[in-house]
Amino acid sequence: MSPTLSQKYLSTRGGSYGLSFEDVVLKGLASDGGLFIPEEIPALPSNWETEWRDLSFEELAFQVLSLYISSAEIPSEDLKDIIRRSYSTFRHAERTPVVELDPKRNLYLLELFMGPTFAFKDVALQFLGNLFEYFLVRKNQGKEGKDRHHLTVIGATSGDTGSAAIYGLRGKKDVSIFILFPTGKVSPIQQAQMTTVLDANVHNLTVEGSFDDCQDIVKALFADADLNSTHNVAAVNSINWARILAQMTYYFYAYFSLIKSPSYKAGSPVRFVVPSGNFGDILAGWFAKSMGLPAEKLVIATNENDILDRFFRTNGQYSKTAQAGGVKETHSPAMDILVSSNFERLLWFLAFQADGSSSAEEKRKHACEAVSGWLTQLKTSGSFNVSEAVLNGAKVEFESERVSDEDTIETIRSTYRSCFPPNLGPGSAKSSKTGGYIVDPHTAVGVAASLRSIQRNPAASHISLSTAHPAKFASAVDLALRDEDGYSFPEVLPQEFVGLEQRESRVTPVSGNVSWEVVREIVKAEVEQELQGLR
Ligand SMILES: Cc1ncc(COP(=O)(O)O)c(C=O)c1O
Ligand SMILES: N[C@@H](CCOP(=O)(O)O)C(=O)O
């Protein structure tokens, strides 16, 4: 299949209309502060279920991505090559294997941590790194010195995006990468994964504040016209549309793995359960579902930072001020987020679908107005309410669950005691003595939410997304399992992490007077030094 037309993209807030895929990937965030969305969600080809069923992960990725990226923009052979290189770094032949966690309850786990940094972010960020490189090589053909297009990638992380982005971009030509992380709020292994990468184009900034503060600084830098014009700022967070796009593949892959599994009960409805923070992972599932993937529901699993769960339980109020004391530190730190950036994209589509206007153009205009209004209210008063029609649209597609820290630890323990998946590959974590399966705390949030959903829907098949390897979160895993028979943390530790925290590292502290302007000056100075070869 070779689509002839590129998808066109618009901003959720109304500007930047008609951009190409390349524009959208390189810009990251729209200049009006909105997020890029495709003008239309493509439908699956009529024969997708038979034609795609036995494809490899890479072949499937090509089919899915080709529905959004025109071969006129990236020739098919080039796209295939980018995909091949992106997933050749994965440790598992299937890339994102599905394991039978608890077949009696029709509970399956989609292991997304087989990439270089042991978290689901690798699936999109290995691809995005290669995509940036592809566009830069094309732009810079025949150019020398100052004429070359140099990209300054800036991202915020609560732990996993940072290392995955760094591993996707380290050592690449014509690109510098800056990662902001909240001081003391990422796990020691996560911090070491980022700061021990010493390539000259990698810049880590440890920021006094929360992940939301880091994310706000990044968004302010994107809004700075001056920095954009001099430094070509680009995004690696899930505000970048390519992140969402690349994550769609594994929903299809998991669906096929499930229905081909001998334990699958034919006709059983499929539910995906997704540990959620910034709403990027589950949004990819929503796109897959909207394209035609037969998923009965998508279940949002939050930790105690529960803005998404409260949205459903408070009749459509999205409030960052209702959470007393602001963002909470939990055992699943990568999800310690107050405001979920990508929810804006979903709201746009729900507003579009709920609008009664007869033309698509009118509906688009109204959806952009609605989203702009809501986001302005969020900024000025800390919350907004959506209409009943928008809320009902969300309820058709989603359910939500909030999982406490206590439940998270208890779920790591109960999974270890009761789950012995028969089809594990070598990259999974289990006790060599008892065979008990070890999940990380984010995955545990998803498993706890799955078990609740199973109680209400015992006939459904649940695919719970396993978003990180447990070795990244030693303290929570140890807390849950230290007294369990057959458990030893060193056994869980992959070779890649041994001695990591002792290696030489490099990081720039941002403390005291923390502001986006201070970070902007650091970015400018460090890019300058890098380009002069002084690092
Ligand atoms: C391990 C892990 N699980 C879950 C999430 C939440 O995913 P999302 O932010 O896409 O909702 C994150 C961070 O994004 C993460 O790092
Ligand atoms: N959990 C993330 C937070 C950033 O989210 P992103 O998906 O928008 O990049 C992390 O680990 O950094």
Automatic annotation (TrEMBL):
PANTHER family: THREONINE SYNTHASE FAMILY MEMBER, THREONINE SYNTHASE-LIKE 2. Catalyzes the gamma-elimination of phosphate from L-phosphohomoserine and the beta-addition of water to produce L-threonine. One of its GO terms (molecular function) is pyridoxal phosphate binding. It comes from the Eukaryota. Belongs to the threonine synthase family. The modification N6-(pyridoxal phosphate)lysine is found at residue 121. Pfam families: PALP, THR4_C, Thr_synth_N. This is Threonine synthase. Residues 8-87 form the Threonine synthase N-terminal domain. Pathway: Amino-acid biosynthesis; L-threonine biosynthesis; L-threonine from L-aspartate: step 5/5. It catalyses: O-phospho-L-homoserine + H2O = L-threonine + phosphate. Residues 92-331 form the Tryptophan synthase beta chain-like PALP domain. InterPro entries: Ser/Thr_deHydtase_PyrdxlP-BS, Thr_synth_N, Thr_synth_N_sf, Thr_synthase-like, Threonine_Synthase, TrpB-like_PALP, TrpB-like_PALP_sf. GO terms for biological process: threonine biosynthetic process. Its EC number is 4.2.3.1. Its cofactor is pyridoxal 5'-phosphate. It comes from Penicilliopsis zonata CBS 506.65. Keywords: Amino-acid biosynthesis, Lyase, Pyridoxal phosphate, Threonine biosynthesis.
